[in-house]
Amino acid sequence: MPLPTHDYHHIKITRKQKKVSGIAGVFSSEAGNWEGNMNHQTVVLSTTSDFSGWRAWSRKLLHDRIPADSIRWIIEPPATLYASSATRVLPSAPSTTSIPRSLATLFPAVFVSEAPERFHLLYLTLQTLRDGAAVPEELTDELKTLAAQSRNRALDLRCQMPDAGNQDWQIVRTSHTAALIDNQASALANLRPSPWVVTAPDRTLCWNGKEYRFGPGLDKDVSDPAGIIIAARSIATAGAGNAWWDGIAPLRLHPGIDDIASSPSLPSLRGKAVDCQMCDLCGPATRTVSGEGNPDARVMFVGEQPGDHEDLQGRPFVGPAGQLFDRALKEAGGNRAEAWITNAVKHFKFVAKGSRRIHQKPNTGEITACAPWLAAERKILAPKVTVMLGVTGASAVLGRQVTVSRERSRHIPMEDGSIGLVTVHPSYLLRLPDEESKTREYTKFVTDLRMAISALAG
Ligand code: URA
User: What are the residue ranges of CATH 3.40.470.10 in the chain?
Assistant: First the structure.
């Protein structure tokens, strides 16, 4: 469930006049504006991840022509972890600046960078644009460098999140910053809808499957997994209405074809796929459902696309077709835990009928848009045997139209020297109208799977 990102009401502004020497101007949260010497201002942000709040204050400061060099941005954690959005006072000022898209996309990434001067650099960029000047190349380059560092760190954090194959609570120990962890919370919950705790020196983030809880780093003496989970479950609830968490601008990776092809590992592929927008299916679907299984698997199974259950659980083949597949694989002498299971298309395509979501076949454009993910997955895993379940999986892997009845049940030599095998999709078996054909076709399916497994031995 993505965090709300629409609310503007939560940079906490407090009196810091004594604390920061040489700074004469101080913003006051009560008044919603500033006092003192108009040329020197201190803005105290309560959290490092509050992009909307920073933006609201920047708009006001720009509108009042406060120069970047006279603003000091500091962060002071809030006294309480829950503050209602309704209690926050933020200025409203008209937006005076239009930001070119090439720069606008850098803002959320620069905002979560580790550079102490990040707020200043972003404000300086806005100030330059407001004045109608060209943003100097050095400044643009610096923003790009910081944004690239943030993207790498976001991907690194995502790679640390276990997939949902094991649905028990998982603990992720990381040294990443609170700003990055906050910012990536919704991507992490998308990657793994089952419960987890991220524990870092200055942030604890807990996802129980429904809501986020967040707080400072845990005491050092809380180190055993059970203690971490108990402590993490008792910290403040974050979510709609908590001022400190309403204004995050999530850093998305928006991977292109080159990013996909150059992925060095399956976790990095999965971390990037969270943000895939290569076709329109990403809009209605809940999440990207990447492949899962044993990263050293020698056999890969390729289905069509996630269904309703898969879309909700974030795992391939866990609904009725998946259960039938698991049973048949076991009967054939295989073991799901040793295999890699994936789909040709990584988003659920459906039409809504009342409360039900009815599966729709992906079209050629959608299969083609998703092809780079499957190609990269196969290149990294390099399976000895690829089993194609149904026409969509087979056409996606072989890169041509396939008639399953004509090509099934035989070893197909693949270009890379590995072996392919086409068989039916398990949902075909579920759709058969009578018990007799169900039994007959199921037996043929198990025979095909056995044939694939026997190819591993050769
Ligand atoms: N059908 C598929 O092709 N894939 C799944 O993951 C589930 C159902």
Answer: 257-455
